[in-house]
């Protein structure tokens, strides 16, 4: 133990530098772990032909990434200490923390003022356009179409509803066919798992939606 305390690493990174080293190591280890999980998940799903997505996670074994994170933190702390000793010899951690707290408070005030100004501007514009709409809508309006105008309007609305119903029917039909295709593919792969049951249930639900869309379209 005496050799460790008298070593170069302890002399360079003792006291508050140790705290920096621990914090940087934790941050880098978390970043490395997230990157590794995402990339391995992409690799795992690269040739995935099913409708399911598989997620990979290092879990407890991700602690192995602490080693490269610690090495990187060691280099970073050494570089920061060197830069501080050269350019800012009187700078301390306490001064940095005080400066960051002041900057955060100042930034919070600026953001608060900006948000308050934007809110006031939005309310002013809303009130202005509301008043303008009320004044412009004060004129007289007379309907001249009578029963024929109402009939043509109803006809247009019915045609619009018919087009929407036909579009919904086609969309539901495509989704149902795709769901049954995926269920068949999952069944050919392995029909003894819950994945196959989920695929069949999803296909049945899509089929019901398609049948309802067909009924709505016929009733129009």
TrEMBL record:
<feature type="compositionally biased region" description="Basic and acidic residues">
    <location>
        <begin position="157"/>
        <end position="168"/>
    </location>
</feature>
<feature type="compositionally biased region" description="Polar residues">
    <location>
        <begin position="190"/>
        <end position="201"/>
    </location>
</feature>
<feature type="compositionally biased region" description="Basic and acidic residues">
    <location>
        <begin position="206"/>
        <end position="220"/>
    </location>
</feature>
<feature type="region of interest" description="Disordered">
    <location>
        <begin position="140"/>
        <end position="168"/>
    </location>
</feature>
<keyword id="KW-0472">Membrane</keyword>
<feature type="transmembrane region" description="Helical">
    <location>
        <begin position="110"/>
        <end position="129"/>
    </location>
</feature>
<feature type="region of interest" description="Disordered">
    <location>
        <begin position="190"/>
        <end position="220"/>
    </location>
</feature>
<feature type="transmembrane region" description="Helical">
    <location>
        <begin position="18"/>
        <end position="36"/>
    </location>
</feature>
<keyword id="KW-1133">Transmembrane helix</keyword>
<feature type="transmembrane region" description="Helical">
    <location>
        <begin position="56"/>
        <end position="79"/>
    </location>
</feature>
<keyword id="KW-0812">Transmembrane</keyword>
<feature type="compositionally biased region" description="Low complexity">
    <location>
        <begin position="141"/>
        <end position="155"/>
    </location>
</feature>
<protein>
    <submittedName>
        <fullName>Uncharacterized protein</fullName>
    </submittedName>
</protein>
């Amino acid at each position: 133990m005496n050799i460790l305390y008298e070593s170069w690493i302890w002399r360079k990174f003792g006291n508050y530098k140790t705290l920096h080293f621990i914090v940087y190591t934790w941050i880098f280890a978390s970043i490395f772990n997230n990157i590794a999980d995402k990339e391995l998940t992409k690799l795992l799903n690269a040739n995935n032909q099913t409708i399911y997505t598989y997620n990979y996670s290092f879990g407890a074994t991700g602690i192995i990434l602490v080693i490269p994170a610690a090495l990187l933190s060691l280099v970073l702390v050494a570089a920061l200490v060197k830069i501080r000793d050269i350019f800012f010899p009187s700078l301390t951690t306490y001064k940095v923390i005080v400066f960051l707290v002041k900057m955060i408070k100042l930034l919070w005030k600026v953001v608060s003022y900006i948000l308050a100004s934007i809110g006031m501007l939005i309310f002013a514009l809303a009130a202005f356009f509301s008043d303008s709409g009320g004044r412009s809508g004060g004129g007289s309006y007379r309907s001249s179409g009578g029963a024929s105008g109402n009939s043509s309007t109803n006809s247009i609305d019915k045609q619009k509803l018919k087009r929407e119903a036909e579009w919904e029917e086609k969309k539901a039909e495509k989704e149902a066919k795709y769901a049954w295709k995926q269920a068949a593919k999952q069944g050919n792969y392995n029909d003894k798992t819950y994945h196959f049951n989920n695929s069949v249930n999803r296909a049945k639900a899509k089929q019901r939606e398609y049948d309802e869309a067909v009924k709505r379209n016929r009733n129009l």
